[in-house]
């Protein structure tokens, strides 16, 4: 039998130094990080290793989920479960070294959940469960350029989509190699650091919003801003151009004057049209009133002509 470790003893006995080794064995166990996390559409290995098996070979390894066998290894064979595709596999070379990790190809959302393993030597059987979390890949949205105006407050808008349960561990905003604002999370505390006019909102930063707030914009704030992010165990960097533009007050005034003139012109046209209609209506009434006596006179004269015509006959 081979031993994993030992204790060395040196004893003086009967005028001789006696050296002997007391062997110490460790129990056979399985080490798996739990839970484990991966992203959708990636290849992933559900890591599990064994220790304390001494010289005993692993004779049996099996992984299954929800009652479906995913992959099985025995001393004489190595095959995938009948109920699953070849997306799940075991590596027999790694198993011979005590590594029973399960390889998953092209992880899907349905792969999320509890996985159960069973592993044995000739003498010992060990079983356990591991929770696998599958998340959507996060996406940093930080449009560039962004526009601001002097003497006003503004935000350089930057967010992280699909942050899921990932923890934003740190944020740094810099310009011209100077740190403007930063945020760092440790196990015990959150440490925000910021200059007087630049800040980050601690309330929304864990929701994936790491926008940089700038108070009282100055012309010198124009330029390139860089951000650095720590998300779970990954690192992201990017940059945003901020353009400071003067407010076009004269143009606004001209627009207002033009609008007033246009409205005034319309009203003037309406008034002129109204006056024209009133005058025309007055002229029509006058013409009718002057014509009515003539028509009455004619109506009176016509009978006289008929009587005279009868006398003449």
Q: Can you describe this structure?
A:
The structure is a single chain. This protein has 313 residues and is α+β, with helices and mostly antiparallel strands. It is 23% helix and 42% strand. Among the domains are: 32-135, Sandwich (Immunoglobulin-like), CATH 2.60.40; 139-244, Immunoglobulin-like. The chain has helices at 92-95, 202-205, 249-312, and strands at 5-13, 16-24, 29-32, 36-39, 44-46, 48-51, 60-65, 68-74, 77-80, 88-89, 102-104, 113-120, 125-135, 139-141, 146-148, 154-156, 159-161, 168-175, 178-185, 190-194, 198-199, 212-214, 223-231, 234-244. Strands 4-13-12-7-8-9 form a 6-stranded mixed beta sheet, with no helix packed on it. Strands 15-24-23-18-19-20 form a 6-stranded mixed beta sheet, with no helix packed on it. A 3-stranded antiparallel beta sheet has the order 5-11-10, with no helix packed on it. β8 (68-74) and β9 form a beta hairpin. It is elongated, with a radius of gyration of 46 Å. Mean pLDDT is 78; it is low at 1-6, 17-24, 284-300 and 306-313.
């Amino acid at each position: 039998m081979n031993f994993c470790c030992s204790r060395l003893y040196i004893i003086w006995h009967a005028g001789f130094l006696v050296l002997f080794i007391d062997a110490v064995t460790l129990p056979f166990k399985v080490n798996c990080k739990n839970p484990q996390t991966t992203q959708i559409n990636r290849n992933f290995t559900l890591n599990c290793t064994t220790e304390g098996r001494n010289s005993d070979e692993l004779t049996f390894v099996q992984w299954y989920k929800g009652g479906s066998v995913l992959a099985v290894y025995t001393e004489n064979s190595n095959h995938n479960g009948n109920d699953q595709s070849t997306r799940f596999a075991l590596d027999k070379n790694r198993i011979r070294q005590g590594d029973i990790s399960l390889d998953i190809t092209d992880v899907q959302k349905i792969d999320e959940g509890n996985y159960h393993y069973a592993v044995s030597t000739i003498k010992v059987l060990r079983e356990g469960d591991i929770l696998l979390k599958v998340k959507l890949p996060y996406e940093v949205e930080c449009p560039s350029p962004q526009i601001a105006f002097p003497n006003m407050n503004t935000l350089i808008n930057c967010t992280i989509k699909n942050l899921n349960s990932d923890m934003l561990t740190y944020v740094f905003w810099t310009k011209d190699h100077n740190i403007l604002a930063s945020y760092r999370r440790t196990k015990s505390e959150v440490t925000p650091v910021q200059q007087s006019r630049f800040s980050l909102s601690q309330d929304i930063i864990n929701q994936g919003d790491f926008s940089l707030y700038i108070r009282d914009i100055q012309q010198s704030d124009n330029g390139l801003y860089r951000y650095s992010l720590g998300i779970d165990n990954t690192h992201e960097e990017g940059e945003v151009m901020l353009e400071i533009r003067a407010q076009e007050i004269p143009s606004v005034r001209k627009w207002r004057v033009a609008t007033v003139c246009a409205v005034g012109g319309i009203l003037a046209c309406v008034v002129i049209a109204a006056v024209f209609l009133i005058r025309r209506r007055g002229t029509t009434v006058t013409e009718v009133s002057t014509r009515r006596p003539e028509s009455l006179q004619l109506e009176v004269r016509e009978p006289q002509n008929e009587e005279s015509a009868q006398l003449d006959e």
